[in-house]
Amino acid sequence: MTASEYKKVAVITGGSRGIGKAVAEALVAQGIRVVIGDILDDDGHQTAQELNHQCAGDTQMAAYIHTDVTLYKDVIALFRFAEATFGGVDIAFLNAGIISGADNVFLPLEDEVEVNLPKVNVTGVVKCTKVAVLHMAKRGGGVIVNTASVAGFLSGMQLAHYYATKHAVVGWTRSMKMLKDICNVRVNAVCPHWVATDMQGMILNKEGDDPYKQLVEQSPRVKMETVVRGVMMLIEDEKRNAETLLTLPGDVIRVQEPIAEYEELSTSEYAALVDGYQPRVLDHYKKQLEQALDRYGFLDVYRKQQSVEPSAFSYSTKELEDDHRRLATTKIKGMMVLVICSFTTTAASPATRCASSQSMHAILRHDLNFG
Ligand SMILES: NC(=O)c1ccc[n+]([C@@H]2O[C@H](COP(=O)([O-])OP(=O)(O)OC[C@H]3O[C@@H](n4cnc5c(N)ncnc54)[C@H](O)[C@@H]3O)[C@@H](O)[C@H]2O)c1
């Protein structure tokens, strides 16, 4: 693979180890460059080094930067660092998460007890999404995958607060559906069952005879390969948007559909109300996006990108070169079309006209994307 063939760029939070690291390895194996943001600096640097060694040649494929996802200054620095290092951001895997403090119903009534879990698992995802969207909108689009969990659909006393945070990630993910129409950004979530990572240590290494420890010890695990495959499906499949994808033991991957619409709300009056609201809300958010891009210093580039290629997803140097080559070929063939046109409209026989018009249609179909 040559340097110009390395295409997209991914930001991964919580990628120093565990699921984030496994996904980073899979992305790099596909030629996608990766920037990891985490608070575990030694592990993070080590992971970036391993990823760089994973590929032949001396092209840099990975970088690490200290990032606490609960702080805007860190999150902004992460995405700006990715852009400065690799030229932009096309993919964000928002995966950083914690489980400690989840079994807190009977803990002391102190304000700090409940702070950290939602701050990392929910606010971290929200903050990273908001920054990622600006970088992706500027680039013409992108895809975000959040790490939720089966805990986003289940419930249980032992990890009640963790369950609540993952329900929130599911809600946030599904609520982002309209981003696709606003700025060509898709948002999905992977929802794994238990995976053997350090996170489980928080439960398995607990002192005492917590009955939940035994349950977790003996619970079936989902293979890391299954989780990685689920994430890759969400990244690669352009049709997947606002989707929550379960990854389960037995190598099972399936969509968890949202609950059905409430019958009580399915009236024609309400449907008409929603129909009238949809086009207006899109305009409303497109304006808000421009204001946000302006505050972030990206508006000019965004507008330029919109006027050049409104629906472009992302362009590497190689893709740009290919486009220029295609454009040049198209111009030549366009001239051929004109020649054929003038020929067919003048002295040619009906049979020649028919053959000429067929080749003209073929050129239009293949090179100008008509029909
Ligand atoms: N392991 C499982 O069984 C399992 C199941 C379902 C979902 N998940 C979710 O998967 C994600 C990854 O977890 P994992 O299993 O790989 O565990 P892990 O502990 O190995 O990885 C979590 C990573 O997030 C990082 N992190 C924590 N707080 C952070 C912060 N404030 N800023 C930046 N990074 C931070 C950690 O340093 C770590 O590298 C989490 O969101 C977790 O909730 C895990």
UniProtKB/TrEMBL annotation:
Q: Which SUPFAM superfamilies does the UniProt entry name for this protein?
A: NAD(P)-binding Rossmann-fold domains
For this protein, the record's Gene3D superfamilies field holds: NAD(P)-binding Rossmann-like Domain
The UniProt GO MF terms for this protein read: oxidoreductase activity, acting on the CH-OH group of donors, NAD or NADP as acceptor
Q: Which InterPro entries does this entry report, sorted A to Z?
A: NAD(P)-bd_dom_sf, SDR_fam
What are the alphabetically sorted keywords of the record? Oxidoreductase
A cellular component term (GO) from this record?
cytoplasm
Family assignment from sequence similarity: Belongs to the short-chain dehydrogenases/reductases (SDR) family.
Q: Spell out the protein name for this chain.
A: Short-chain dehydrogenase reductase sdr
Source species: Lichtheimia corymbifera JMRC:FSU:9682
